[in-house]
Write a structure and sequence with these properties.
The chain is mainly α. Helices cover 69% and strands 10% of the residues. The chain folds into 2 domains: 2-70, Arc Repressor Mutant, subunit A (Orthogonal Bundle), CATH 1.10.10; 74-138. It has helices at residues 2-6, 11-22, 30-37, 41-53, 74-100, 105-138, and strands at 27-29, 57-62, 65-70. The chain has a 3-stranded antiparallel β-sheet with strand order 1-3-2. Helix 2 packs across helix 4 (41-53) and helix 3 (30-37) packs across helix 4 (41-53). The mean pLDDT is 92.
Amino acid sequence: MAMMVQTGLPPMMAKVLVNLFTSDTGGLTAAELVQRLRVSPASISKAVGYLERLGLVKREREGRRERYIVYDDVWYRAWSASARSIQMWAGTAQEGVSVFGAATPAGARLDTTSRFFQLLGRDMAKAAEHRRRGLSAARPAES
């Protein structure tokens, strides 16, 4: 969990993700998370909402309760979200080139930044898909 926090995930979100990921079923109810983490239901709700926006967890109805499930391909999803974020940086930097002009020092820096992020984003997307295909092919057949 400490590594998740060090790399930018807020502490409560990291705690919830670790608990979901390490549960036998890959999912827990809000009540189970409240009990495990000794926090308020509101804290769990906020954390799950954040993790949902990142595409790392989903909610499933279980009678009147909701069960929060971590996706099997959680790390692929996290990597892909990061690649999309990088592409957004590229686009925003490119908009800055239009504002400042490509011939200005600021415009030139923004253009270099945009091109760097475009290449990085493409590489990240390709790497994620390559690894996902590799892991799918290496997964043993279920009996």
